[in-house]
Specification:
Shape: globular
Cofactor: pyridoxal 5'-phosphate
Strand order of the largest sheet: 1-7-6-5-4-2-3
Number of strands: 12
Structural class: alpha/beta
Radius of gyration: 22 Å
Protein name: Methionine gamma-lyase
Distance between the termini: 70 Å
Largest sheet: 7 strands, mixed
CATH topology of the largest domain: Aspartate Aminotransferase, domain 2
CATH class of the largest domain: Alpha Beta
CATH superfamily of the largest domain: Type I PLP-dependent aspartate aminotransferase-like (Major domain)
CATH architecture of the largest domain: 3-Layer(aba) Sandwich
Helix content: 25-40%
Family: Belongs to the trans-sulfuration enzymes family.
Number of helices: 15
Oligomer: single chain
GO molecular function: carbon-sulfur lyase activity; pyridoxal phosphate binding
Organism: Kalanchoe fedtschenkoi
Strand content: 5-15%
Length: 439
C-alpha cells in the first residue's frame, strides 16, 4: 500500500489540506495562475525551528523511533505516515527534505514535489515511473547529453523503452511521433541545452494531452524565467545543482508534479524514488531551503548581465545566441511565455565555428583576462564556460550534434554576477583583442 503524502503535520482529525505535507497549493492542472514565482514561494508554508527559530531545524536522523511497537507495523502498512508526523527512515521521508519539496512545488506551481540526490536521478526516476517495459518516449533531439544517453542507450538496453527524437518546433512531427496506446510521455527542455531553443510548452502540451500522453519538462536552465507547469506541462524536473543552488557546491534534483504522481513514486512496492533510493541528505535540503528565497534576485541579475553582454557581442559582429535578442527565433515566444521582470535566461552561446577557436578564446578569458572559468555546469556567481560539443554534449555523436544544432565551436556561457558589469565586459574585450577579433 502506498504511503499517502496528503495532509498536514497535525493530528488525524485535521482535514485542512490547503497547506499539506507535499502540496503547496491546489490548482487545476495546465491552468496558468499568473503568479510570480517569488510570490508563490513567499506564500508557501514557513517551517520554523524546533525551538522557535526563524530557520527550520535539520532532522539529521536516518531512522526514527516509535512509542508503541504496533505503530511500526501500521506505518509499514501505510496507515500512518508523514502527514501525521510518523517517520520510518530518511530514505522514505525526512521532515527537512519534505520542507524543501514544498518550496519547490510552490516555485513551479505544482501540487507536489520531491527532492532527490541529483538532477539525473530526478529525470531517471520520473521516466522509469511513467514508462512501462517496452514503452515509448517522444523527446526533443536537443537535450543535455546525459539525458540523451539515458534515452538513447540505457533505457532501451535495460527496459526496452525506446525514444523517437524529433524537432519539437515541428508540431506535425511531434504529433506523428506519438503512438496512441504506446507512447508514455513527451519530454523536452523548456530552454534547450546548449542551443537555448525555447519550447512552446502550451502547444506541445496540447498535442500530447489530446492523445492522453504525459508531458515532462526539464526547467533547469530557466527557473523563475519560465514556469512549464503553469503553461500546461504535467511534470517539471530540475537539476537543483545549477541556478537554484547558485554555489556550485551541491548536487541535487527535484521532481515537481501532481500529488498522485509523487505518491506513486514513493509507493513501498512500485515507487521509483522509494525503491531506487536517490535520497537527498537533510543537511543539503536545509542549505538549499535557505537559498531559495533569494533565487529571484539572483536570476534577475544573471539575466540582466546576459542580456547586456549578448547585445554588445552582437554589435561587435560576433555570432551570439540569446533568447533576449530580437534575432533569436523564439524571442517573441519567450516574451509571451516568460514570467515578467525575470528576463530571458542567464546563459548565452557564442559560436566560434571551430573547437580550436573556441578553446583559444576560453583560454584567454580564463587564464589571461580573468573573465570567467572553464568549467561545466551553470548558475554560479562566476561566469562558467565550456565548449558543449566536446563536453556536456559529448555523449551525442557527430550526426546527433549536427541535428541538434550544436556547432563544434559552440561556447556555452553561464553568465555570473561577480564583479561589475563593466569590469567583466572590459575583460571580455581584451580577450577578443588578443585574438585579433576587435581592434
Amino acid at each position: 500500500m502506498a504511503t499517502t503524502v496528503v495532509g498536514r503535520n497535525k493530528g488525524p482529525s485535521d482535514n485542512d489540506d490547503a497547506d499539506n505535507l507535499f502540496i503547496s497549493k491546489k490548482k487545476m492542472p495546465g491552468v496558468s495562475q499568473g503568479e510570480d514565482p517569488a510570490a508563490a514561494l513567499a506564500h508557501a508554508r514557513h517551517e520554523f525551528g524546533e525551538h522557535g527559530g526563524v530557520n527550520m531545524s535539520i532532522e539529521a536522523s536516518a531512522t526514527f523511533t516509535v512509542m508503541e511497537p504496533e505503530t511500526m507495523s501500521r506505518m509499514f502498512a501505510g496507515e500512518l505516515g508523514p502527514d501525521r508526523d510518523f517517520f520510518i527512515y530518511s530514505r522514505h521521508f525526512n521532515p527537512t527534505v519534505l520542507n524543501l519539496s514544498r518550496q519547490m512545488a510552490a516555485l513551479e506551481g505544482t501540487e507536489a514535489a520531491y527532492c532527490t540526490s541529483s538532477g539525473m536521478s530526478a529525470i531517471a526516476s520520473v521516466l522509469l515511473q511513467l514508462c512501462v517495459h517496452g514503452g515509448h518516449v517522444v523527446a526533443s533531439r536537443t537535450l543535455y547529453g546525459g539525458t540523451h544517453a539515458l534515452l538513447s542507450h540505457f533505457l532501451p538496453r535495460v527496459c526496452g523503452i525506446t525514444t523517437s527524437f524529433v524537432d519539437i518546433e515541428d508540431f506535425g512531427a511531434v504529433n506523428d511521433a506519438i503512438v496512441e496506446g504506446k507512447t508514455n510521455l513527451v519530454y523536452f527542455e523548456s530552454m534547450s541545452n546548449p542551443t537555448l531553443m525555447v519550447a512552446n510548452t502550451p502547444e506541445l502540451s496540447r498535442i500530447a494531452h489530446a492523445k492522453g500522453v504525459t508531458v515532462v519538462v526539464d526547467n533547469t536552465f530557466s527557473p523563475m524565467v519560465l514556469s512549464p507547469a503553469r503553461l500546461g506541462a504535467d511534470v517539471v524536473v530540475h537539476s537543483i545543482s545549477k541556478f537554484i543552488s547558485g554555489g556550485a557546491d551541491i548536487i541535487a534534483g527535484a521532481v515537481c508534479g501532481p500529488a498522485k504522481l509523487v505518491n506513486s513514486m514513493m509507493d513501498l512496492q512500485q515507487g521509483s524514488l522509494m525503491l531506487l533510493g536517490p535520497t537527498m541528505n537533510a543537511k543539503v535540503a536545509f542549505e538549499l531551503a535557505e537559498r531559495l528565497p533569494h533565487l529571484g534576485l539572483r536570476m534577475k541579475e544573471h539575466c540582466h548581465r546576459a542580456m547586456a553582454y549578448a547585445t554588445r557581442m552582437k554589435k561587435l559582429g560576433l555570432k551570439v545566441i540569446y533568447p533576449g535578442l530580437e534575432a533569436h527565433p523564439q524571442h517573441i515566444l519567450i516574451k509571451s511565455l516568460g514570467n515578467k521582470e525575470y528576463g530571458y535566461g542567464g546563459l548565452l552561446c557564442l559560436d566560434m565555428e571551430t573547437e580550436e577557436k573556441a578553446n583559444k578564446l576560453m583560454n584567454l578569458l580564463q587564464n589571461v583576462t580573468q573573465f570567467g572559468l572553464m568549467a561545466v555546469s551553470l548558475g554560479y556567481y562566476e561566469t562558467l564556460m565550456s565548449c558543449s560539443g566536446s563536453s556536456t554534449s559529448s555523449e551525442m555523436n557527430l550526426e546527433e550534434r549536427a541535428l541538434a544544432g550544436i556547432s563544434p565551436g559552440l561556447v556555452r556561457m553561464s553568465i555570473g554576477y561577480n564583479g561589475t558589469l563593466e569590469q567583466r565586459w572590459s575583460q571580455f574585450e581584451k580577450a577578443l583583442s588578443r585574438m585579433g577579433l576587435i581592434k
